[in-house]
């Protein structure tokens, strides 16, 4: 499924789309990106999530990112926390669905922590937050994950000089009634707009332009 929005860019004078990616079988990779558990003697946590919203890349953009393999700090090369068919997908919002009593935020937190670790290692901007949709049966909630720097005394496990925090939950709506469905669609439309207005300019400037040699 793809959502389309007209955009005008110097790199490509075409319409860019947003893709809804089913990433339920895509794991965090390399494993060193996995956050650690304070409960289980710093055991690595490796969680998958169900879906992500991502900018659709042109073939030219994909070639630029793939050709710059030696410029990535982590190998195999990737612009996100995966090494798979999603390696070159600029994912800007995440979604996890639960139909039982389990908390979808646990998997989202693990996934997004790896996302920020990847940004830190590659030198991508960490100030851009990550919207996360947690679906509890019929109820949809929005969380905003963001990264804050910490002092030397507050360093996190593994010596990380930042920590990831979550703002929320923000009720998006429910699929139990028509009004709730339209509220969900309203929030999704706003998320797509944020992807184009906020995330895409930073992706073009801080990620793609680096590998274009600009």
Structure description:
The protein has about 210 residues and is an alpha+beta fold. The chain is built from three helices and nine strands; from the N terminus they run βββββαβαβββα. Strands 1-2-5-6-7-8-9 form a seven-stranded mixed beta sheet. Strands 3-4 form a two-stranded antiparallel ribbon. The two termini are about 35 Å apart.
Q: Which structural class best describes the helix and strand composition?
A: alpha+beta
List the strand order in the largest sheet: 1-2-5-6-7-8-9
pLDDT < 50 stretches: 1-14, 38-44
- Report the order of strands and helices: EEEEEHEHEEEH
Roughly what is the average pLDDT, rounded to an integer? 86
Q: What does the overall shape look like?
A: globular
Topology:
Layout: E1 2-5, E2 16-22, E3 36-37, E4 43-44, E5 51-55, H1 59-67, E6 91-98, H2 104-122, E7 130-136, E8 139-149, E9 162-174, H3 178-212
Parallel strand pairs: 6-7
Antiparallel strand pairs: 1-2, 2-5, 3-4, 5-6, 7-8, 8-9
Descriptive key words:
214 residues; two-stranded antiparallel ribbon; 7-stranded mixed β-sheet; alpha+beta; 3 helices
Short description, anyone?
The chain is of the alpha+beta class. It has 3 helices and 9 strands; from the N terminus they run βββββαβαβββα.
């Amino acid at each position: 499924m793809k959502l389309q929005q007209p955009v005008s860019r110097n790199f490509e004078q075409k319409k860019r789309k947003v893709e809804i990616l089913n990433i339920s079988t895509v794991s965090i990779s390399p494993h060193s990106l996995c956050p650690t558990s304070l409960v289980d003697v710093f055991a690595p946590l490796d969680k998958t999530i169900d879906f992500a919203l991502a900018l659709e890349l042109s073939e030219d953009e994909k070639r630029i990112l793939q050709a710059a393999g030696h410029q990535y700090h982590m190998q195999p090369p990737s612009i996100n926390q995966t090494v798979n068919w999603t390696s070159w997908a600029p994912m800007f919002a995440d979604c996890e669905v639960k139909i039982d009593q389990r908390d979808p935020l646990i998997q989202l937190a693990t996934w997004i922590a790896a996302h920020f670790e990847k940004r830190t290692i590659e030198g991508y901007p960490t100030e851009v937050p990550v919207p996360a949709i947690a679906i509890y049966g019929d109820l949809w909630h929005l969380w905003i994950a963001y990264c804050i720097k910490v002092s030397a005394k507050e360093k996190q496990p593994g010596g990380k000089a930042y920590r990831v925090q979550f703002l929320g939950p923000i009720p998006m709506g429910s699929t139990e009634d028509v009004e709730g469905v339209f509220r969900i669609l309203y929030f999704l439309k706003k998320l797509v707009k944020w992807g184009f207005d906020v995330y895409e300019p930073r992706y073009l400037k801080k990620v793609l332009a680096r590998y274009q040699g600009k």
